[in-house]
């Protein structure tokens, strides 16, 4: 199952810009191998914002929770990370549904 996951990072006043970038570096070092392995289908940084968008391939909702809770950025500053998750399905499947609904 594919999921669009939107991360919005809110820097707490208690950490410096350098510290935030160090956390983000560890996050990237954990995420990029998952891209190469195909678990993460796409990964983008939103320009001008502290936001990242990912397309993740997961077998279950439980796997999503497991993956998210083990991310360095969540372990180190989970309170400062807002996550939005949207389950996705192929547009072709939606088209087939539309044809049934119209018939």
From TrEMBL:
Record-annotated Muconolactone isomerase domain positions: 1-92
Pfam families reported for this sequence: MIase (PF02426)
InterPro entries in UniProt: Dimeric_a/b-barrel, MLI_dom
SUPFAM superfamilies: Dimeric alpha+beta barrel (SSF54909)
Protein name: MIase like protein
Organism of this sequence: Metallosphaera hakonensis JCM 8857 = DSM 7519
């Amino acid at each position: 199952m594919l999921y669009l996951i939107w991360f919005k990072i809110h820097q707490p006043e208690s950490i410096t810009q350098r510290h935030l970038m160090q956390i983000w570096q560890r996050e990237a070092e954990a995420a990029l191998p998952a891209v190469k392995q195909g678990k993460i289908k796409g990964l983008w940084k939103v320009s001008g914002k502290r936001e990242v968008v990912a397309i993740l391939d997961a077998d279950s909702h439980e796997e999503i929770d497991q993956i998210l809770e083990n991310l360095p950025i969540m372990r180190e500053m989970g309170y400062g990370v807002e996550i939005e998750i949207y389950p996705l399905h192929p547009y072709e499947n939606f088209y087939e549904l539309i044809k049934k609904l119209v018939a």
